[in-house]
Amino acid sequence: MNMLFAGAKLALFIGARLAVIRRDDIAGIPWPDYLDLPGGGREGDESPLACALRETSEELGLNVPAEAVSWGKRFIEDDGDKWFFAGHLPQEAGGRIVLGDEGQSWQLMAPQIFIAHPKAVPQFQTRLALFLSGTAGDAFEV
User: Fold this and answer.
1) Is residue 140 classed as helix, strand or coil in its secondary structure?
2) SS3 state of residue 117
3) How far is CA 32 from CA 6, 24, 28, in A?
4) DSSP state, residue 94
5) Model's pTM, two decimal places?
6) Which residues contact 125 (CB under 8 A, 6 or more apart)?
7) Contact, 28 vs 106, CB < 8 A?
8) Do 62 and 25 contact (CB within 8 A), yes or no?
9) What are the residues whose beta carbons fall under 8 Å from the beta carbon of 121, sequence distance 6 or more?
């Protein structure tokens, strides 16, 4: 399962709401000032899930246990495969969120608001909608 991939994202539900990061508003980065989900590029030989969990810790200060992630799907892209995961933590976990050194701010929002928002990263809107539709995920190592 430790196949080649470029990065991973995590749709992290805190209770019923989604943890969302507003990206930095800096020229030269993809999707400046857009709403995004925690995640990013692979480091070393980490697994897709380890990548998503490390990035979530760096960006939101939350150490999400692998067992909290219930769904994952691989997406084949020209610049390398990407994984999209979904997981849940209890509502109380929101009180432990601390924004890391990337992004302008964070918020918890209803997933349907993220999906419909005009300034959310489009591919993650689509992937979140796929998860919420009940589409089966792919096998991944926990």
Assistant:
1) coil
2) coil
3) 20, 6, 8
4) G
5) 0.95
6) 114, 115, 116, 117
7) no
8) no
9) 23, 31, 34, 35, 36, 37
